[in-house]
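sry for the spam today, last one i promise. struct tokens for design, 233 residues
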């Protein structure tokens, strides 16, 4: 074969690929993608769960510190809602763990991130006021403490309770993480809290629901194992 004929045939042409070689490369890429995409999804899921576990551990520590200071855990929401889950979702936990000051007609959190009218506390939570609150002076004074210092803004979110009261709640930093979960507040997923608890009748229940890839994950303080697609509180 003459040199010019060899080049025309494509055999040995510099930088060239035959159709078979291209198909082999595409097949290899497809196989690698088949392994890589599930691995990336698994890594993302683990990162979301680990982040939320760390947040729950911080809240548990804060709740234990609250009890050490006051002799009991913060109250839960005492109101009755048409959806029982709303009562657990809309807890006064942020105000009690952050600490407040009664300034005129408003409770202001020690971190300065939120305030609520004293008259609205009962409407929102069915309680007369917050326990962890600075009030009075002299021997009868009470000084509030912030049990969750350094709380980032992505872990709190405002909520309109009963379409009237603007409150602030503790939420998961990761969101749903699906943007439509829970449906009533896109990408805002609050911590659920009840005291006394049902699963922990001698203390409290604290839990978080996460929707990831079509599955619902439950992280809670009454089980060390993450529960998947199980009946939720």
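last one done:
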């Amino acid at each position: 074969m003459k040199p010019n004929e060899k080049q025309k045939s494509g055999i040995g042409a510099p930088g060239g690929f035959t159709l078979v070689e291209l198909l082999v490369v595409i097949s290899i890429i497809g196989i690698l993608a088949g392994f890589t995409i599930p691995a990336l999804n698994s890594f993302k899921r683990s990162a979301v769960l680990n982040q939320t576990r760390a947040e729950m551990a911080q809240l548990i520590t804060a709740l234990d510190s609250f009890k050490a200071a006051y002799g009991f855990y913060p109250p839960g929401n005492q109101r009755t809602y048409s959806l029982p889950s709303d009562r657990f979702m809309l807890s006064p936990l942020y105000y009690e763990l952050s600490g407040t000051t009664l300034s005129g007609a408003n409770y202001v959190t020690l971190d300065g991130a939120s305030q609520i009218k004293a008259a609205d506390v009962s409407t929102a939570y069915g309680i007369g006021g917050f326990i962890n609150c600075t009030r009075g002076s002299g021997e009868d004074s009470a000084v509030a403490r912030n049990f969750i210092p350094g709380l980032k803004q992505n872990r709190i979110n405002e909520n309109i309770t009963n379409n009237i009261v603007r409150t602030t709640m503790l939420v998961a930093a990761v969101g749903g993480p699906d943007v439509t979960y829970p449906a009533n507040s896109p990408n805002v997923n609050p911590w659920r809290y009840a005291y006394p608890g049902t699963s922990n009748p001698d203390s409290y229940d604290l839990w978080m629901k996460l929707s990831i890839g079509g599955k619902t994950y439950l992280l809670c303080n009454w089980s060390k194992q993450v529960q998947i697609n199980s009946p939720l509180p």
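Strands lie at 100-103, 106-109, 115-117, 133-134, 156-161, 165-170, 192-194, 205-212, 215-220, 223-228. ok im logging off now
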